[in-house]
Structure of Knotted carbamoyltransferase YgeW:
Amino acid sequence: MKTLQDYIDKLNSLNFKEMYENDFFLTWEKTDDELEAVWTVADALRFMRENNISTKVFESGLGISLFRDNSTRTRFSFASACNLLGLEVQDLDEGKSQIAHGETVRETANMISFMADVIGIRDDMYIGKGNAYMHQVSDAVTEGYKDGILEQKPALVNLQCDIDHPTQTMADMLHIIHEFGGIENLKGKKLAMTWAYSPSYGKPLSVPQGVIGLMTRMGMEVVLAHPEGYEVMPEVLDVAKSNAEKSGGSFRVSNDMADAFKDADIVYPKSWAPFAAMEKRTDLYGNGDMDGIKALEKELLAQNANHKDWCCTEELMKTTKDGKALYLHCLPADINDISCKDGEVEASVFDRYRNPLYKEASYKPYVIAAMIFLSKFENPQEVFKKLEEKKSPRKFSI
Amino acid sequence: MKTLQDYIDKLNSLNFKEMYENDFFLTWEKTDDELEAVWTVADALRFMRENNISTKVFESGLGISLFRDNSTRTRFSFASACNLLGLEVQDLDEGKSQIAHGETVRETANMISFMADVIGIRDDMYIGKGNAYMHQVSDAVTEGYKDGILEQKPALVNLQCDIDHPTQTMADMLHIIHEFGGIENLKGKKLAMTWAYSPSYGKPLSVPQGVIGLMTRMGMEVVLAHPEGYEVMPEVLDVAKSNAEKSGGSFRVSNDMADAFKDADIVYPKSWAPFAAMEKRTDLYGNGDMDGIKALEKELLAQNANHKDWCCTEELMKTTKDGKALYLHCLPADINDISCKDGEVEASVFDRYRNPLYKEASYKPYVIAAMIFLSKFENPQEVFKKLEEKKSPRKFSI
Amino acid sequence: MKTLQDYIDKLNSLNFKEMYENDFFLTWEKTDDELEAVWTVADALRFMRENNISTKVFESGLGISLFRDNSTRTRFSFASACNLLGLEVQDLDEGKSQIAHGETVRETANMISFMADVIGIRDDMYIGKGNAYMHQVSDAVTEGYKDGILEQKPALVNLQCDIDHPTQTMADMLHIIHEFGGIENLKGKKLAMTWAYSPSYGKPLSVPQGVIGLMTRMGMEVVLAHPEGYEVMPEVLDVAKSNAEKSGGSFRVSNDMADAFKDADIVYPKSWAPFAAMEKRTDLYGNGDMDGIKALEKELLAQNANHKDWCCTEELMKTTKDGKALYLHCLPADINDISCKDGEVEASVFDRYRNPLYKEASYKPYVIAAMIFLSKFENPQEVFKKLEEKKSPRKFSI
């Protein structure tokens, strides 16, 4: 698209009215139109920024972030998204708070939200907990808003939970759309979401789960490949199967990396921990069984080490479509002889795809900003039109 | 009030000219007019925000925060207040600074203030220290301003010291004013500030002290109740007595919770540590006597445990005015069987008052913003008028 | 200068076009005109702030800071500078990031820069590392910009490296310029950059190195004095010699503090660690040799203690020009009987110069803002003119 009007026209063709005043938890809770609205708004915001049109739609207001796991890129993406719209990030650092006093989620959620327009949460460590926690927070502020305590209902954006990583996969997908020239060109394309070896353990399942939960909606031939024992959440497998059926694509699980890579248009080789082991770990933490956790870690690392051959090699890449499938990763990757001896990908493969990988990552701030935008403005088309008319530059221009 | 002009008219009737370029340490250092100006400006700012009128009065400038104790709600309230006015919060994290190098308060205060319009400090841990430290900081920046080092004198806002917690009690009071339909309706109302049992120890005295120092000014019948041995600072008792006399109300101390609750219109049951013990603790810390501190902690917990019957029960609530006194708390509360086995309040009482409690907390950001506003603008009435004329929306509107 | 036009006229006489879209690493990599442009823009920004003219030139955008050493004044100076221009500071806290996962500098640099207009880094601890790291970051984002990954190239500002501390020395110099009434008055003035005793060890060399690398450019008579064994980087000595030659001043090294102070117009007595020892320490850290580090620390403290007589005393001050040389320090200073028993300066000397010292520090935010400004705007003169015409106040005015 070449003008802002093109994005507005696209939005006019979509039904996304349910996104207004709503949250973003899982991609499969959204309609196709709603997902396309996110990508369209993300592209429009990028277009405006690239053309030095300010997209500051808030004069004041906070964007609250809560990271229950370390983060660089998601933290900066959230901060960038908030800043782009005029919201100031305030991080809820649980270590510096009084939450240890036994405060309820309901109370904390309201106490931080008096002037909050959005809350972004990353809570991906424990199976059955992260997504549930986000819902608790959302329920609390929704009630607080209804009860007249909060003047606005902050939108909740899932910055990675135990089930899905929607800001990542929506950015991945926007990258794919741009690489393939449009959603309409994805039908029939083969995508391989495959496990890969890493010397670390306990990497979240939210990326592979999020990928099969989203990419199966475009009519693609999606293969999830992993060694036996590295199964993902069964519920998400069901989502993927049902998506594939509806979209006219296919979904299958394989225990053979070569099978998945064969003729693939897109490959996404990445390590994760077995779902069953992560469930066990959650229970061990729940019981404070530190010896059990150490034993589990040792066991998992040993199990991983049996599968060092699950690596994205040049040899495997040659077997993909024309030998040049689009290689994806959420970063940081474990690169052979760079970040570790044996890892997820050979250095020469990674190097060749460095620019596309960084480009892939660059969509995340815009995807987050779009999720906030669609929750906050009922008619983004009109807002875009007015912003264009207003011609307020992001960076002062003479 | 229904229009911004109503708030402006109210301000026109008050004398608060001494607040301009001044700090906010203790409520009893301010006149009645000055306190009413704070509440009026707070309400006006809330009115404007609710009507989507931007109150951004700074294009740039910093709000410095220094928290020497953990904090969630005060931290977010201060951040919200600054953001509402256009100031960016910059936290002085003493752990990340060079202050350990032996730098003086005077120097640090100036070094962080070159572009600071406000400094908010929480320093409530040690008797005789917190308020004194805030004065040191204020003196330093006042001198820096006079000496031409600083282009502006940052306003100091006491976010809780060893003596008072003015942003809390001013928010509490604004809540009371709204619940009772105006300051003029408070005369003769009975308020019970009572101790309550908590399994933790060492809770600051600033809330009960701040409450009796402020609430005695409205002609109310104020009772401070606590077990023997839980006395507060004698100086603040004197303030309360003198306030009550001047305002035509009353103030007395009781060692009987039931006596305090009887026919009360407002109850504020909350744990605190004995003043004498806190003084002792300050000395022990001063001498680095860690064994002494542990012994004191054990002693205080045992002493607390003798008073588990000091709990805000349904039974006690029934004895209040019509059985429905307004229940207040600064939060988080120790709730029976929720945050601990025995605590300050029964769960059913707390639950019934949850919404009013959250509403009470929601005034704090506005009270802080009002304190900053009155220190920074000589004529807030004119500023409000111009902001209304300008009609710049907080959130973009079409 | 009295009007903004005066600063604009000054800028019109200078050639600084290479600063646009460029970084600021070392002062000696910049031309005289470029340095003067920094001072002029810094003064112009201060003039505008003092006259309540908003200098907000960004509606959105991030200023990324990375502090690999504790910092108060540089942290707040950077935050103030960004805020003054409209950028929001986002701190990269390596402890909270995923960088430990083995991510490359190139990757991290790009991941945090999607909406970053400036990156400020302090990395002064290890010889041969800090400046090199900054170049790695700059190279990475320059490449990212060229490859279309970043929409803008963030300017890199050196907030202190192992070689230079340009934001400090440029602020020092701006202070000198104002004190002496113009650059043109500095020719022939004697400046003594001297070592002084401190009971701590391992203070960075970047200040003395930065001072002799910059102050030798003004035709001044610069003496670097220190006890034997406290040599600075030989490369910077060469820079200083060459500068002095070109500028018609002089540069020499002395091992006698009295010799340096004699008739000096400006004195800068400050502790630092021997370059050779710092090189050794870097190697010890590289090898993880903690015993070696402890031994080195002990050795260095003992070595320092041999030179307690290197103190800026009243007696020494009397020997300076008319007994009243301008005393400089980057702060915090080790003051006798205040921050330590024996230190860098007698309390009465420090006290007498407190105001000028704080004034000296007050230039740093403006110097940083000027560095950013010159990197971001090709024609600052036009921007100033338009800002003045726009007359948007920093603080709301009626």
Q: What stands out?
A: Residues 168-361 of chain C form a domain with the Rossmann fold fold (CATH 3.40.50.1370).
